[in-house]
Amino acid sequence: MSRLPLRLRLTLVFGLAMAAVLVAVGAVLYVRVGDSLTERVDESLAARGDELAAEVGGGELERVLAGDDEEFAQVLAPDGEVVAATPGFETPLVAGHAPMTTETEVVPTGEDETEPARLLALPVGERLVVVGASLEDRDEALDGLLTQLLVVGPVALLLAAVAGYLLGGAALRPVEAMRRRAAEISAETSGERLPLPDARDEIHGLGETLNAMLDRLDAGLRRERRFVA
Fold first, then answer.
1. Which residues lie below 8 Å from residue 59, measured CB to CB, with a gap of 6+?
2. Does the predicted TM-score (pTM) go above 0.85?
3. What gap in Å lies between CA 180 and CA 67, rounded to an integer?
4. If you placed Cys at 178, which of 35, 63, 88, 194 could pair as Cys (CB 3.0 to 4.6 Å)?
């Protein structure tokens, strides 16, 4: 890498730094969005669990248990047997008869089929109310976000690399101007000096130092000519 032009080296370093930043930001965004979506699922489960618990023993239990493709529920007896359940979820979703905080489990959804879901178990008298929600929508949303990150990330990195290349060229432009002027200076044009950038930076200081050196060389050349004369 040390043999590469300085401008290209600056671009590579800038690109690597931007790649690290983009990966870090993308990872944090992915995790935060996933946590937010999971939190929304948990809030929905808590509300549905309270609704179902209020209907245990009432006439609206079947309506509450109806559910849909994404939500389901069960009412378990003290021995763990299913008393009532959303159609298709007649197999107990939890083992035993103990309350359970919201957790991610793999639940059966049909013949030889399973999917990840969030489950919440609430005790209601001697029974246990279990509510669940599929994580399919959350996973699809995260997959879509990941796809967008994989598309936008390289584009952003390419733009950053181009910007770094242009900025490197702009930063090195005064150096190139001094190089061209230095190549033109000879014994016949010893009075010429290197152009200095307007900014009072390190390149400006380098140019002043080189011009002072040219002044000393010019003075020595004049003394030599007088001696020869």
1. none
2. no
3. 78
4. 194
Instruction: Please answer whether residues 185 and 192 qualify as being in contact, where contact means their C-beta atoms are separated by less than 8 angstroms.
Output: yes
Q: Which two tokens stand for residue 185?
A: 């200076």
Residue 98, SS3 per DSSP:
coil
Contacts of 213 (CB under 8 A, 6+ apart): none
Cβ atoms within 10 A of the Cβ of 127, count?
Answer: 19
Please state, in angstroms and rounded to a whole number, the distance separating the CA atoms of residues 194 and 177.
Answer: 8
HSE (side-chain half, CA atoms, 13 Å) at 163:
9
Token pair listed for 207: 């140019």
Could you give the C-alpha distances from 71 to 22, 68, 114, 167, 173, in angstroms and in order?
Answer: 36, 5, 14, 54, 64
Contact by Cβ (8 Å): 149, 26: yes
Q: Which residues lie below 8 Å from residue 120, measured CB to CB, with a gap of 6+? A: 42, 45, 46, 49, 100, 101, 102, 130, 131, 132
CA–CA separation, 162 and 111 (whole Å): 54
Contact present, 132 and 107 (Cβ < 8 Å): yes
> So what's the pLDDT on residue 60?
56
Placement of tokens 């937010």 in the chain: 36
Residue 48 to residue 116: CA distance in whole angstroms: 18
Q: Is residue 197 within 8 Å of residue 229, measured between CB atoms?
A: no
Res 214: pLDDT? 82
**What integer pLDDT is reported at residue 112 of this predicted model?**
61
Which residues in the chain come in under a pLDDT of 50? none
pLDDT, residue 24, reads 95
pLDDT at 13: 86
How are beta strands 100-110 and 71-76 bridged, if at all? Answer: unpaired
